[in-house]
Design goal:
With 102 residues, the protein is an alpha+beta fold. 24% of the residues lie in helices and 26% in strands.
């Protein structure tokens, strides 16, 4: 039995609000979709987290209020989760969402 949400809906600030299409287009392609789906299932309903496309088309999950991004997470080429902490100017790559959560 899957305890995660059956459907994930994330509103972003442009006309294509379909999370999977956005992740496919800006998040590194179809191969990374399962990792983006897992990350979205983990973060979408947590206070302070939002999904955005920034810079030159980089998909990110960000933690912060009023659109700021104190902690940024994106899916890497090898399907890891790159986490960058702006306050500490430090980063780590997590292997799975359990590691992201910790």
């Amino acid at each position: 039995m899957n305890d995660g949400p059956a459907h994930l809906s994330v509103k972003v600030n442009f006309s294509n609000s379909d999370y999977y299409n956005v992740c496919d287009t800006f998040g590194g392609g179809f191969e990374r979709l399962p990792a983006w789906r897992a990350l979205g299932d983990l973060l979408a309903h947590r206070p302070g987290w939002h999904f955005d496309v920034v810079n030159r088309g980089e998909a990110l999950w960000c933690l912060g209020v009023l659109g700021e991004c104190r902690l940024a997470i994106h899916v890497t080429e090898d399907l890891g989760f790159h986490c960058y902490d702006h306050d500490d100017d430090s980063d780590v790559v997590a292997a799975d969402t359990a590691e992201v959560e910790s």
